[in-house]
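Hi, here's the filled form for the chain we discussed.

Project: internal
Contact: R.S.
Residues: 335
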Amino acid sequence: MNFKHFMGAYIVIVPFAILLILRGFIPTVESTTTTIAVVSESEHAVSPEMIRVLDQYAKIKTYLSIEDMYKKLRGVGTVEGLYWDPAKQQFVSVLQKTPKGNSAFSLAAQVIRQQYLHKNYPGTPPVMTFEYDVPKELSHRTKISPVATMGGSIFFVFLILIAGFVIGLGIVDDKENGTDKALHVSPVSKSDYFIGKSIYPLLIIAFYSIIALLVLGLIHVNILQVYLLVIVSFSITLLFGLLLGALANNETEAVGVGKLLSMLMMLAILGGVLLPDAWQWAVWWAPFYWVYDVLQEIFTETVTWTSLAWKSAVTVGLTLFYFLLLRKKIIKGLS
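And the returned structure, exactly as it came back:
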């Protein structure tokens, strides 16, 4: 029944495509550090010990010969080359894209010189020291890419909405085909019916929760907290689906009503992202805001169990409030 309409397949295919797009915008190691093309075979090979040392400071790409290394250097991007000269018994650092006669040391040269001093003159005092400072306004920042944390949070909210669409369209489909009338005289209770409609969307959300964490590089977060929030936020999915099924009489109406409700819900997310802290209260009315807020804390590893508990309680409380407010409308639409 779920695959009778477009949304049944949509909820399986489209979220994965969105994850791949988000993954493409997350900075990789190669985009944030120097890449060194190292010769790893023949007489010009750099020793495995030195490769392990360099690997701490740069992205290492190994090539079988000097010719292969030079081909890499002629490609797109900032890449250094490195090989061993057996005749002179020394390393050779190659910088293809710098002016002729450039006397600046490459990253490989700096690391190798430092390793040489450390190994042969261990007692030599350092000639330079370093210090760092983090501005107060950036002290709360996380090492995790905002594309992963914010994008991941919005992705989960998107899943909640799409799952609600699947439930709502399933109910509308039964109303349109007269299946609901047959169910009234069957042994199936209302609880059985709505539970049956909810199983598929819930399984999809549970499945994509793990997939999203893997693809976005967030698998290190507390997965138990993520799944607790998934269960809590599914109350919003149920309300959205029931409201959609109650207000619409056919698929066209359901899509229109769903778009309107989705825009209203996403307004809260935009408010949470764009509004300054002093104005966040303006979107406290939306359960989605609290789900998004907790997800941000989970993904940046700043959440506490106390924060998760009371914000989850607010989410369920607001959802219950809207259900009681719209209860008569929902019952009338589903009768």
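Let me know if anything looks off before we file it.
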